[in-house]
Write a structure and sequence with these properties.
The complex is a heterodimer of chains A (about 150) and B (about 100). With about 150 residues, chain A is α+β, with helices and mostly antiparallel strands. Helix content of chain A is about 25%, strand content about 40%. Chain A has helices spanning about 5-25, 30-35, 40-45; strands at about 55, 60, 65, 70-80, 85-90, 95-105, 110-115, 120-130, 130-140. Classes of the chains: A alpha+beta (about 150), B mainly beta (about 100).
Chain lengths: ~150, ~100
């Protein structure tokens, strides 16, 4: 018996892994509609994430002026309790949706990333918590060629 | 430029584990032209996954709007020295890469 039990557990684990892997892969599939959208409204439609309420608990840390639009660092924290996902849009980019991040199992609703910006634009972040959506925006000015201004 | 190696550092912060990862990838937007005036095809990472001791904790979908050679930071509540962090990515051509590190 003592030998059988771990063996059984391994088999069960393998079986579960086999059944759950395709499901997990499906859930994480890249959202073509939202990423292919060319304006913020269509992105939100593609994500099913319209109707977010403005919130001060969604915090965007970024430079006011980015000299190099190719690498603009943005740090995002959601202080809304129970946040499970964060969406980042650069509203005036040709394809505004930059990323969708889902947090589970102990991950904090925090992400720091570098984005490309074609021109001065609002950055919009939407955090989802308990089926509700909260949003914040921040304008980042892009000085093309880094000549200041 | 082709996709290449990754670098990662996972350190203990105040009540959380800080994961900082760099991916070598061109993140081509499909809108740039080469020296012959031909469009360089779209080539970018679409998915980023962070695992802690084998459990998925962050699942990210990203676009070509992320800068070349993407750098991300994530935070995981708690954590202990020696915890295993794994970060992997998958791009639109089906290429993939991953890296693993112990929390220091």
């Amino acid at each position: 018996m003592t030998v059988m039990k771990p063996m059984r557990r391994i088999l069960l684990g393998a079986l579960l892994a086999f059944f759950f892997k395709p499901l997990a892969a499906l859930a994480a599939s890249w959202n073509k509609d939202a990423f292919g959208a060319k304006n913020a409204a269509d992105v939100l439609k593609g994500l099913g994430a319209s109707g977010a309420a403005p919130s001060k608990d969604v915090v965007i840390e970024a430079p006011q002026i980015a000299e190099n639009g190719a690498v603009v660092p943005i740090e995002i924290v959601s202080n809304v309790p129970g946040t499970t996902s964060i969406v980042v849009l650069i509203e005036k980019n040709p394809f505004p949706l930059a990323g969708v991040f889902e947090f589970m199992d102990g991950a904090l609703p925090f992400v720091r990333l570098n984005v490309k910006m074609g021109e001065t634009s609002d950055v919009r972040v939407i955090a989802e918590a308990g089926g509700r959506r909260y949003t914040a925006t921040k304008e980042i000015k892009v000085t093309i060629g880094g000549c200041g201004g | 430029m082709a996709a290449g190696p990754m670098k990662m550092r996972a350190t203990l912060g105040a009540g959380y584990t800080d994961v900082r990862v760099l991916m070598t990838h061109p993140m081509e937007t499909g809108q740039r032209k080469d020296s012959d005036g031909k469009l360089i095809p779209l080539h970018f990472i679409q998915q980023v996954t962070v695992k802690l001791n084998g459990r998925t904790v962050v699942e990210g979908q990203i676009s070509q709007g992320i800068s070349r050679n993407p750098v991300f930071s994530f935070r995981i509540k708690g954590g202990a020295k020696g915890d295993r962090i794994e970060v992997s990515w998958l791009d639109n051509n089906g290429e993939t890469n991953k890296t693993e590190a112990a929390v220091a």
